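We close this part of the discussion by returning to an individual protein. The sequence in question and its structure tokens are set out directly beneath this paragraph:
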Amino acid sequence: MRAAALMNRFGAHFHHIIVSLDGRMGCAERLEPSVSFKALPFLSKPREALPSRLSRIRSLLREVQPDKLVTSNWGSIEWAMANRWPRLPHLHMEDGFGPDEATGQKPHRVCTRCLVLRGSRVLLPSRTLLAAAHGLWRLPEDTLRYVPNGIDLSRFSPDGPRVPLDVPGEGLLLGTVVALRAEKNLGRLLRAMALACAQGAMLRLAIVGEGPELGGLEAQAALLGLTRNVRFVGYLPDPAAAYRGFDAFALSSDTEQMPFSILEAMGTGLPIAATDVGDVRAMLAPANHPFVAGREDEALAAALVGLARTTPGERAEIGRANRVRAEVEYDQETMAAHHVALWRER
């Protein structure tokens, strides 16, 4: 999403070769007609050895002859490994970790990053990742670039069209916009909501998004007795309109760094209840800090209860503080200027 936003922002100033490592090309639909690009799949062959994969990567790089190699996250680390002789200028971006590293980084990945990324520029959107890159991966400080994520604040704003979410029941309407994947731990949000409701909180929940966890989450909502006040909305083409339909936003992830959904909720002027992961606490306005919780069901439930007990005026004040912080710190134009400078750097 960030890459597509940046490509759209700078249009025909660059030509992009986009390499899809899982063969999926759906994100190309986000690109505007002004963007010059070619999309290529690059799939691992069954039981293909690492030397063979690296050889194929080098062959493709020689074929397309890019001016710069840009890689994203651990899934693309082999491209950094293959970028040796001749070596292209290289920018590597790290956004965080999957569920397999939610509680700690794997030693072999730490060692690989330490060895492979030493001659590259490494872009990090969170201070948590910046500390890891310097202290754990042992990368030279002068190769690291901290660039917070940014969003289009004209699109994600309190004013504009709303999607009718049609969540039954009464009370505060919580919303979350999320891929239904294991590391997002929406089961925790459902359990926390059930605990909060048992304590007298009047809550409803709209879950916007799709993913492999849907069936299990629907079953869990039924077991918890939440079918009357939880709605699985599914995919929406304009999530900005959905945010404006929420009274508050919720995030229950096991692992994040600088989640776009938090920025989008801040831009929309919403109060937020969230697990204390990555840079989430530092991102939010101080007025919102009481609703940042530990990664336990009971802790998140307490944050939801506290949010439900605030008055509409108090919630509006917290939301305004989050919006101001987003305007000052997380505007898309600031992020874009830093990224394009790194793209052009040789």
In short: The chain has two domains: 2-150+331-344, 172-329. The CA atoms of residues 45 and 53 lie 8 Å apart.
